[in-house]
Design brief:
alpha+beta; 4-stranded antiparallel β-sheet; 9 strands; single chain; globular
Length: 171
């Protein structure tokens, strides 16, 4: 998994994005948005380790998938979500609790996590995760070849979407 160092909410032109390995200690300034990209084609041993951190509800949801590939992608996405968010919260991945909005969008449950916001999207073997303090953020993986990162989805009108960068993932 990799992260951009800090994403700006300023509109930018189309460009390739350089993904970097995260530093050993993470800090998220109030004005910053961190965007993570992860490959969901994971080895079986790593998937089993990620699965151990899932909640009972997440394990139940995973068991409902008919195809192993889809089940593994779900486990990978939820497990990586937990592993990525945990250092920001100084918490164990297995101890994080999620609530769900009206449309199924997950959020961190608990008063102690109320200022950290995130949005996750995955399609095929690509997952994106945006993280910010005190503001809503969004990301979308439209297909395996093009991803769109929105720094602050609540401030974008539909006319503004033409200015949102389309980021080409690494081959």
């Amino acid at each position: 998994m990799k992260s951009t160092s800090e994403a700006s909410s300023e509109p930018t032109t189309t460009r390739a994005l350089e993904w970097c390995t995260p530093p050993p200690e993470l800090s998220l300034p109030a004005h910053a948005v961190h965007v993570w990209r992860a490959d969901l084609e994971l080895e079986a041993a790593y998937l089993r380790r990620l699965e151990r951190n899932l909640s009972t509800d997440e394990r139940t949801r995973a068991s409902r998938f008919r195809f192993a590939r889809d089940r593994d992608r779900f486990i990978g996405a939820r497990g990586l979500l937990r592993e990525i968010l945990a250092p920001y919260l100084n918490a164990s991945p297995g101890r994080l609790s999620f609530g769900y909005g009206a449309h199924g969008k997950p959020f961190l449950a608990g008063e102690e996590h109320s200022t950290l916001h995130f949005n996750v999207s995955h399609s095929f073997d690509v997952m994106l995760l945006a993280i910010a303090h005190t503001r809503e953020v969004g990301v979308d993986v439209g297909n395996p070849h093009v991803v769109v990162a929105l720094a602050d989805e609540s401030e974008l009108a539909s006319a503004d979407l033409s200015y949102v960068p389309r980021i080409e993932p690494e081959p």
